[in-house]
Every structure is written in C-alpha cells, then in structure tokens.
Amino acid sequence: MSINLVELAEKVAREAHQGQYRRGGVVPYIEHPKAVVSRVGNDVDAQVVAWLHDVIEDCEMTAEDLLDKGFSEIQVNAVELLSKTRETVYTEYLEAISQSPLATKVKIADMISNLADIPTKKQIKKYAKALLRLSKEL
C-alpha cells in the first residue's frame, strides 16, 4: 500500500506540473520534486510529500483534491504547510513548517535541491538562514 501511495504521488505531481518548467524554461518542473524525493531517504510519508510539495502552491490542486485521491491527513497537512502564499511572511511560514517533523524534513530537502540548482546570492542567503532555523528542529 505504501509503495502505491508513492507511485500515486508521483503520478499526481507529473500530471499537475505538466507543461511547467524550472527557471530558464528548459528543465521540466517535475525534475525538482524528483530531486527532493531523492533527498528524503526511504521514508514513505516524506517521499509522498516531496512529490506533492508544490502541487497546491503552483498548480490548480487543493488539499481536498489530495485527500480525495487517498493521501493521508498527515501527508496533506504537510503539503499544505509547505504551500506558501504571497501574503505569508517567510519567517511565519518557516515557523509553521517547524511544527511538523514531516514538513521540516521535506522543506530541508527542498532547499538543498534549490541550492543545487544554480541559486542566486539572494537565494543562498535566504536558504542558509532557513536551513539553520529548521535544522534546530531535528
């Protein structure tokens, strides 16, 4: 059952991010969640959340959609925590994430993936501070 949820999460992410590209417009966006998944280890919940971590924020998908597809409340809650809105202050966003070990694990993997993808100086500073903040929760 667990492996099927990871496969389902990948399928949902691939469909949701279809036609999206990373910065520069060359690399398909799905390569980012794939990289995040590769950094969370064998933790099934973290793999599911890693595949889905941007589908609410960047696609036309809701938490209810994810629940309807069979993902657990714990998984969907983590995806919601990782979904930053423009109105959310970044420090408050990190504070909310830090309350969930699952969301924290995936966010750290997400930031490491972003840092491995030709970050700007501004992104390096932002993620360095955020990694220090979230690593205190581990």
Automatic annotation (TrEMBL):
- Alphabetically list the UniProt keywords: Hydrolase
Q: Could you list the residue ranges that cross the membrane? A: none
Origin superkingdom: Bacteria
Q: Which SUPFAM superfamilies match?
A: HD-domain/PDEase-like
GO molecular function of the protein, one example?
guanosine-3',5'-bis(diphosphate) 3'-diphosphatase activity
Name of the featured protein: Metal dependent phosphohydrolase, HD region
Species source reads Lentisphaera araneosa HTCC2155
